[in-house]
Amino acid sequence: MDSEDRSPCGYDAFRRSCPSHTVLEMLASKWVYLTVCALRRGRLRNGELARKLEGITPKMLTQTLRVLERDGLVRREVFAVIPPRVEYELTELGRNLAGLLSQIRSWAEEHASEIKDARTRASADHGEKAAMP
User: Fold this and answer.
1) Which residue has the higher pLDDT, 132 or 86?
2) Residue 45: its H or E element
3) What is the residue-averaged pLDDT of the chain?
4) Using CA atoms, how far apart are residues 120 and 117, in angstroms rounded to an integer?
5) What is the pTM of this model?
């Protein structure tokens, strides 16, 4: 293992049994990623999150919020009013993560056209190779 692969805290995400490996699995979900980014600006209700996260199903939003709450990244607050009102916000740990994820999001938005062009070229190259005898 390279010295740059070693974690100062003793974890090794390359090992399947390492707890940090399961954290990376959770973070790999696009809905986890987008939900954390959406909550970066402050508290939101379920409906506000659903509108912000185009394409997420109600079931997936509920599952995502439960995972984020379980992992200590999101705090859920229920208000005793009729009808019940529930708001979600990032914890300190979640805010720390949101900063990193926002940088990745900015990179993705900045380079989306380059990636799109590369994919188009790869598809065209693949089509040419398939057409060759």
Assistant:
1) 86
2) strand 44-45
3) 89
4) 5
5) 0.80
